[in-house]
Amino acid sequence: MAITHDGPPAGTPVKASGSIWSNEKTRGWIAQGAIGGLAALLVGVMVWNAQDNLASQRIASGFGFLSQTAGFGINQTLVEYSETSTYARALLVGLLNTLAVAVVGIVFATIFGFLVGIGRLSKNWMVRQVCTAYVEVTRNLPLLFHVLFWYLAVLAAMPPARQSYSIFGEIYINNRGVYIPKLIFGEGSGVGLVALIVAIVGVAILKKWATARQMRTGQPFPVLWTSLALLIGLPFLALAAAGFPVTVEEPALKGFNFAGGARLLPEFAALTIALSIYTGGFIAEIVRAGIKAVSRGQSEAAASLGLKPGLATRLVIIPQALRVMVPPLTSQYLNLTKNSSLAAFIGYPELVQVFAGTTLNQTGQAIEIIAITMGCYLIISLVTSAFMNWYNRRVALVER
Q1: What is the pLDDT of residue 133?
Q2: What phi, psi does 324 have (nearest 5°)?
Q3: What is the reported pLDDT for 163?
Q4: Burial class, 207, CB count within 10 angstroms (exposed 0-12 / middle 13-18 / buried 19+)
Q5: Alpha helical stretches, state H, the chain
Q6: CATH of 90-181+260-365+374-395, one of 1.10.3720.10, 3.50.50.60, 1.10.1240.10, 3.40.50.1170
Q7: What is the rounded distance in angstroms from the CA atom of residue 287 to the CA atom of residue 321?
Q8: Are 328 and 279 in contact (CB under 8 A)?
Q9: What is the Cβ-side half-sphere exposure of residue 191, based on CA atoms within 13 angstroms?
Q10: Do residues 98 and 344 lie in contact, with contact meaning Cβ atoms separated by under 8 Å?
């Protein structure tokens, strides 16, 4: 009796079902299209709702308000500004003030963090305990508490102008801020800036040459002192050749306040100190963890070569630990920049206080102002991340 097979002969390709859902690629496209359409519908509803609300409140949309007169003053400006300036100028002033706090805060937080992080690994019991106490106290208190403490309990408690604390007879500290001598650059002082740029380029070339020379001959070159001589000496000589068109304006007490010189606002000082100390505690833990991640054999190898502990830490341990530290350091730098928005609590005129605060209250352009503020912080974060990623690639191990 013959046996028959109902299926197709062996090796015959099986045709796919005619349903579109049987094709995985087609299903993926349909799902993505549905999600994209839903997202577009949601955005459209939000835009329509926003336009309807603006129309009902008689608020014009768009960015034309940036060319209007601001009409309010700002007590710290790094560029020329007055009450007759535009909202765009006020935005620039707030952005520069934010960048000033961020840059100064990052520098001091890094210094504090490295010193305390290394101190936590010190063999000296007292140094180790003090650094541990610093980390535990700073990291476990809210940042806003740090800001208010330095502003209300320290700087606001300073004496009035007539009883100012004097440092070297030229720097005065009181409850209105810190007054320091101010450099006034006259005509022809631009030659000093050109000389400084030339000196910076020369330092970069010198460092590259010194590294290549040491790799070739094994002889070190005093790059640090030579670089300092270039950065200080070359601009000084250029200014001297131009007749030294730079004068110093010292602060002087006149009446109930100081006149002349440069003034550092107590709000700026409080915010910078708070951000530096607070972020420094987190950086200290990053530094400690990075150093601990380096093999103990590296320290032993450095000691066997006759390097002292301090020199071994600077030349052997820290360069290797940086490969571990840079990524979390980037996060701390970004956090410090964004945390500067807490300045609104003490009245420091940074981006949020000037633009998302005063400007928003006067114009009512909430959507545009929030979008601009978000864009500014996004650009700052992306630029910071790009720089740190570049540096991370420079210090990373190169496989051969």
Answers
A1: 94
A2: -90, -30
A3: 84
A4: middle
A5: 24-56, 87-119, 125-139, 143-148, 190-217, 223-241, 266-293, 296-304, 309-312, 318-339, 351-353, 360-363, 366-395
A6: 1.10.3720.10
A7: 8
A8: no
A9: 15
A10: no
**Spans of all domains in the chain:** 90-181+260-365+374-395, 182-249
Classify the C-alpha dihedral 290-292-293-299 as positive or negative: positive
Tokens 């400006």 belong to residue: 77
Other Cβ atoms within 10 Å of 291 Cβ, number:
20
Q: Whole-angstrom Cα distance, residue 209 to residue 219?
A: 12
Low-confidence residues of the chain: pLDDT under 50? 1, 15, 399-400
Give residue 345's pLDDT.
87
pLDDT of residue 1: 47
pTM as predicted:
0.78
Tens of pLDDT, residue by residue over 117-144, are 999 988 889 999 999 999 999 999 999 9
Query: Three-state DSSP class for 86?
Result: strand
Tokens of 166: 């004097």
